[in-house]
Target: Valine--tRNA ligase, mitochondrial
Amino acid sequence: MGHDGENTTEIAGVLACSCKTSPLWLIACGLARMHRHIYPSINPATTGIHHPSTPSDPGKAVTQNLSSCNEARRNVFEALHPRASLSHLRHDVQTRGSSTAGALCFPKTTLDNHAIGASEGLEDATNTPPAVPADEKKSIAESAAGAHASGADAGAAAAEGGAPKVKTAKELEKERKKAEKQAKFEAKKAKAAQSAPKPAKEKKPKEKKVEEEPLPEYVEDTPEGEKKRIRSFEDPHFKAYNPIAVESAWYSWWEKEGFFKPEFKSDGKVKDEGSFVIVHPPPNVTGALHMGHALGDSLQDLMVRWNRMQGKTTLWLPGCDHAGISTQSVVENMLWRKEGKTRHDLGRANFVDTVWKWKDEYHKRINKALTSLGGSFDWSREAFTMDANLSAAVTETWVKLHEEGTIYRANRLVNWCTKLNTALSNLEVVNKELTGRTLLDVPGYEKKVEFGVIVHFKYPIEGSDELVEVATTRIETMLGDTGIAVHPKDERYKHLVGKTAIHPFIEGRKLPIIADEYVDMEFGTGAVKLTPAHDPNDFTLGQKHKLEFINILTDNGLMNENAGPYKGQKRFDVRYSIQDDLKAKGLYVDKKDNAMKVPLCEKSKDIIEPIMKPQWWVRMKELAEPALEAVRDGRIKIRPETAEKSYYRWLEDINDWCISRQLWWGHQCPVYFADIEGGAGDIPEEKLWFAGRTEQEAEEKAKAALPGKTFTLRRDEDVLDTWFSSGLWPFSTLGWPNKTHDLETLYPTSVLETGWDILFFWIARMIMLGLKMTGEIPFKEVYCHSLVRDSEGRKMSKSLGNVVDPLDVISGIQLESLHEKLLQGNLHPSEVTKATKYQKTAFPDGIPQCGADALRFTMINATTGGGDINLDVKIIHGYRKFCNKIFQATKYVLGSLPQDFVPAKTGVARGKTLAERWILHKMNTAAKDINLALEDREFSKSTLIIYRYWYNELCDVYIENSKAIIRDGTEEERNSAIQTLYTSLEAALTMIHPFMPFLTEEMWQRIPRRPEDETKSIMVAKYPTYTKELDDPESERAYELVLGCVKAARSLMAEYALKDEVEVIIQTYNDTALTTVKEQVSSIKSLSGKGIKGVEILSSDATRPAGCVAYPVSTEAAVFLHVKGRVDIDAEIAKAQKKVDKAKSNIQKQEKILNDAAYIEKVSDAVRETDQKRLADAKQELHSFEETIKQFEQLKLE
Model:
């Protein structure tokens, strides 16, 4: 936890989920201040305490879940009030349910507290927490109670809302003696501090260690492609976790060994375990990868590696997308910025060559990022959407669809970018919302242009003095008006229906006034101007009423000959001049603010114009129905459910798809126009287009269709929408249209994982085209991950400077270098300034080196299937500390194994001690749970499971306990403990490998192999699974009691600042608990810390020890510590009384719940049993605290 302000925020957040009337929760705010001193080993991953600036989880979704609030409430209660039993708070999580059963936080300072030093082994994890000075504890207690006066009386007065009561002489004398005693204690402490060696001086060497010179640059001495030469832990680069050193050399060896390639049986079929195939969503060659790619790639490689370790025939097929308009746009910007040239200056052939060079450069950068992340791709199958074989698949698809009429040519409205001179898909258009009048920058205009207003003007009626008032947000389009529509029931205009209006600027243009129920009588004037060639709604009415379609714009955004006197003028210059001319004619009415959306080209930022253009279209309804049915009948599963609903909504209301683009970079349409000598006569234009896989094929078709005609074929210069070729990706990459071995054995693929934002534009089209062209679904499952935003929740944008390059996170980067990267891009100087400012704020010290494993784990952890992900690089760096935990734990275990150690042939031995049986059961449970979580795509939950096993169970408990067994046990126990230590570590490494491939390979290669195990790499080792022989719930229950006693002892020692010579007394309340605790005295003493002098066990009928404080572990046991003469008894009585009051309140509430008639009827037996146990625990608490008060009162009399 962080500073006081942060703690207060954390507690406040949890209080929102808790009972606000609870006195203990009021105290929590004060106790939070000393939390870091008292409980430094409390891990946010196990408490669910969420830092406001470090989004947690497996995180974020858990905190969005009601059950997580209950879990967080329970854990904070436990962390801040260690003496209170918490079983009464567990009901919410158990009964309401949570996909994660807890909350995994992104580690912060707690990971530092747990980190194992290179020479200190694991002892830090169990050191007694430092004490809080008495005066600070007193101040905190007073603050928590809301009192500024001293003593219990002042606190009581504050609680009553009045002034402190007048004290009696006896009370004043009591306070005087107490003050004298405190003064003597402080004097004694000060004298001891002066004579004793000062801890501060002893800690100075550690401070110097932090300030040591940075390591020299790591130089790998392993030849490329060879197995990595393992270096000693004495090497400076391997004394602690160093991601650069750990991640070096492994990837090239994996690839050379062929681990990434799919393995088939001898007959060429997939292995009996099945297959798992993912075609990698091809990143655009527009530039470097971003964190969204890192998220998707981390999830995909997790699934791929997990399935590979299950023995399946596994393929992850990589590739890149040519990204037509996006790539052409960035290259054009680059040309203009560097050379001051346009693509027209170069010509089509030279410009395309320039784009190919760009593609080659960024293709290398992309692949470097993918390999740095550890992606286990089969690079021998790498694809590019404009490779010859994939281009052939595009041509085959286009020709077949054109032959059957699914692809057709039509003159319709399209999204037209006048800057890029091309039609755009809806995906390439961004709608900017305006609330009213706004001035926007528009490419090609020196001054900003006005938007967000609606202009009212009038048309004169032919043969009459009447005028009809209309309104428009695009006044310049009135030059293309060809009609006016009114509602047939509108009494204001009934007499005008059938008449015509006169255009004031276009000579001879008459506008028929039509009636249509489409018109909203209540909106505006009730009369609507119609511009069928420049508005989607008007287009429909124009077709219905057979109005004239008049285009008034050139491709460059100038007015054409149809604009009359405005020909040659820029469209937005005309916007102003028309208003002036309307005023001059007396036809202008007014202009008002108007909320609206302005469509912008995503690439050029130009204002999109709806323009009539002859384009190539795909009939979508006939393709959509089979795609809908494939999801409805379960052949394709779409996760999460929200994405499936969006899929249905889009496909059920689908429109035809414009697939042609007026670009130079992309797949040129395989269609030819026949220019007939002497003219085409009455042959429709659409009948003169002929598709062909080759020009010769097209010519044969033309000859057959045009007998006796002389013609010349001219290939269409348009290229295809990028999504057309991308829609073929799952099967074209496997060899289609050829019948290849890959297509026959690996298609359909298994999973398509990508962002939800392209569900319609890409995923739906792959399903439609896959079913159409192959007759099969392209994949069996779709998983849509969330979008990655910055830590403030903003969309990542280059202009904001918040785009984070995964390579910068992996390797680290200085702030100055981040600034330099901005200058290398295509940003406007004003955007560079804004982005630089953000970088200074977000990354004042640059981005620290985090490594690929920490990055991957963070991204997987954040994937909850919920909303967008707000990412802070500090979180990633926190998980680097978790990597260090793994590194140091493995290092310690290796140092604990005898030189002649040989692992057992299998890892199913049950262990000789309770601690062994417990960790093996936990290992087995983790294996079962993590496999289920990954099967269900509960990625965030899977990180919780493996984190908890590594951190809380293996490192913090078993490794620590094994020290005592190895030191004090019999030879048989020692040997068993060492074997269990090996088994639990081996399983931990293999379980976390798909999440952290580099670190686990590095450490796995260092541990000895079991006899007859010739596995070369951890990535092809068998993934741990549930083993019935290791399932041992009884040992788990027994050892949890032991751990509860340990926790109680440590908490009491911390709360009362008892550092040494501590006598721990454990009283059990049944024979089973008594036996268990007696047998585990050594473990309890070892885990409780160095300050424990001895452990005494009492049976239930034994007299409660005098002069002790109590910690109720459960209904089975309580822990007591002797505090006579070591604590302020009056203060402790007051604290215990508050807990008595709280316990009584809990009992009353629980009894009320259990006695409620509706409760008895509705809840299950399991819930009732849980609540009854909660009541029993509360009663046990009450009894323990009342006894504690009695003991303290007795101490006062002694």
About this structure: Residues 1-132 form one domain. DSSP finds 42 helices and 33 strands in the chain. The two ends are 41 Å apart (CA to CA). The longest strand covers residues 407-417.
